[in-house]
Amino acid sequence: MANKSTSSKGSTVTAETPAVAATKGKICPIVKYGDPVLEKPAATITEFDTELGQLVEDMFASMYAANGVGLAAPQIGKSIRLAVVDVTLGKNPEAKIVLVNPEIIHAEGEVREEEGCLSVPGFRGYVVRPQFVTVRAQNAKGETFEIRGENLLARAFCHEIDHLHGILFLTHLSMLKRDLIKRKIKKLRKEGEW
Ligand SMILES: [Zn+2]
Fold first, then answer.
1. What local confidence, expressed as pLDDT, does residue 121 receive?
2. Predicted confidence band of residue 18 (pLDDT cuts 50, 70, 90)
3. What is the mean pLDDT of the chain?
């Protein structure tokens, strides 16, 4: 999921965060809308090995570099059920959340808010999401846990778990807004700018 502010204000936040420099991962290019990997369901993870641990680090590094608050593995071309979330943009190391094979087990309330996606850069739209969600997932070691999120965190959980089902936020927009964005992307692609 893209940061709320994609303006220069957003990059100031990142520049101040030591967590970005401290991360051990490598920055991977983010797959853009149009790549089929974004629209197919991702596979369940069964191996909790060092390779998965490294991938988690790479995902955090890639997310922070892109100023995002969430990133799903299909967005770096890996069709597996893994996502990372940090709504503090790296400011609080305690806020780093790793979701392996996550599922929403409870949702409550509704909030309509603008949303963006690192795989659909430059476009935003209003999406209704639950105000509270409870997610059951595994960590990188395979241990099961539950986590509750509210507002932006709940939105990020829903957005990233959608990615693991091959669903983009565009699906939740009005048909008018969705078609407008798709037309603009088509034009950008023709011009070689997508
Ligand atoms: Zn996204």
1. 97
2. very low
3. 91
CA of 122 to the centre of ligand 1 (A): 12
Q: What's the CA-to-centroid distance between 104 and ligand 1, angstroms?
A: 17
SS3 state at 144: strand
Q: Which of 110, 146, 160, 193 is catalytic?
A: 160
All domains in the chain, ordered by first residue? 18-190 (3.90.45.10)
160 annotated active-site: yes
pLDDT at 23: 55
Ligand 1 centre distance from Cα of residue 68 (Å)? 9
pLDDT for position 7: 42
DSSP-assigned letters across all residues of 35-49: -GGGGSPPBPP---S
* Ligand 1 centroid distance, CA of 170 (Å): 10
CB-based neighbours (< 5 A) of ligand 1, an ion: 117
**What is the 143 CA–ligand 1 centroid distance (Å)?**
25
Neighbour count for residue 142 (Cβ, 10 Å): 14
Cβ atoms 39, 79 nearer than 8 A: no
Both tokens of 69, joined, read 């608050």
